[in-house]
Amino acid sequence: GDEVERLLELVAKKDTGGALEVVNTLANQGVEMKEFVERVVEAARGRLLAKAAVKESYVWELEAIEQLQE
Q1: Which residues neighbour 17 within 8 Å (Cβ) at sequence distance 6 or greater?
Q2: FRET pair for 70, CA 20 to 30 Å: which of 2, 31, 44, 54?
Q3: Rounded mean pLDDT of 14-21?
Q4: Rounded to whole angstroms, what are the CA distances from 38 to 20, 34, 42?
Q5: Does the model's pTM come out above 0.85?
Q6: Which residues of 31-40 are buried (b: 16+ CB within 10 A; e: fewer)?
Q7: Which residues, 6+ apart, have CB-to-CB distance to 34 below 8 Å?
Q8: How crowded is residue 22: how many other Cβ atoms within 10 Å of its Cβ?
Q9: Who contacts 23 (Cβ-Cβ below 8 Å, separation ≥6)?
Q10: How would you class 46 by CB atoms within 10 Å of its CB: exposed for 0-12, middle for 13-18, buried for 19 or more?
């Protein structure tokens, strides 16, 4: 959800204080931390896979252009 994306954004910005504030707020609200961590890991994995796919696509395009130029 929104709190997962917010936490990932704060971590990406290296905003430790902000990230801790999100986690503490959720813990104080009684959110099940194990489930929250699983959602965070799933979302982070999705972002990494998307980033890797973009890089892979870019590399493939460069290789295709090089082959065309040969």
Answers
A1: none
A2: 54
A3: 97
A4: 17, 6, 6
A5: no
A6: eeeeebeeeb
A7: none
A8: 20
A9: 7, 33
A10: exposed
**Integer CA distances (angstroms), 11 to 5, 19, 33, 62, 69, in order:** 10, 6, 17, 32, 42
Q: What is the token pair recorded at 36?
A: 């929250």
Q: Are 3 and 37 in contact (CB under 8 A)?
A: no
Q: Which tokens go with 10?
A: 């704060």
Mean pLDDT of the chain, nearest integer: 89
CA distances from 4 to 44, 46, 49, 60, 68 (A): 9, 12, 17, 32, 43
Tokens 């917010």 found at: 6
Query: What ranges make up the beta strands (E) of the chain?
Result: none
Dist. CA 33–CA 62, nearest whole Å: 43
Phi and psi angles of residue 44, each rounded to the nearest 5 degrees, phi first: -65, -40
